Amino acid sequence: MSSSAEPECAGGKTSWPEVVGLSIEEAKKVILKDKPDADIVVLPFGTAVPEDFRFNRVRIFVDTVADTPRVG
């Protein structure tokens, strides 16, 4: 086990606090650099998710509206 507070999963990182505030694409690049086999799933913040555990799944939760919603 690693000496850091972050648990390790098969010898790799399990969380990426450094991507908070980045765009989804930028966050994906950082995550994939550390975990090339990651299955990245982007979900709205607050989405209910199953509690099953998969070693290659990384969920990114987003909650910011980037532009003005409009009809049309």
From TrEMBL:
InterPro entries hit by this protein: Prot_inh_pot1 (IPR000864), Prot_inh_pot1_sf (IPR036354)
Organism: Oryza barthii
Gene Ontology molecular function, alphabetical: serine-type endopeptidase inhibitor activity
Protein name in UniProt: Subtilisin-chymotrypsin inhibitor-2A
Family affiliation: Belongs to the protease inhibitor I13 (potato type I serine protease inhibitor) family.
Source domain of life: Eukaryota
Keyword Transferase: no
Any GO BP: response to wounding
Entry keyword set: Protease inhibitor, Serine protease inhibitor
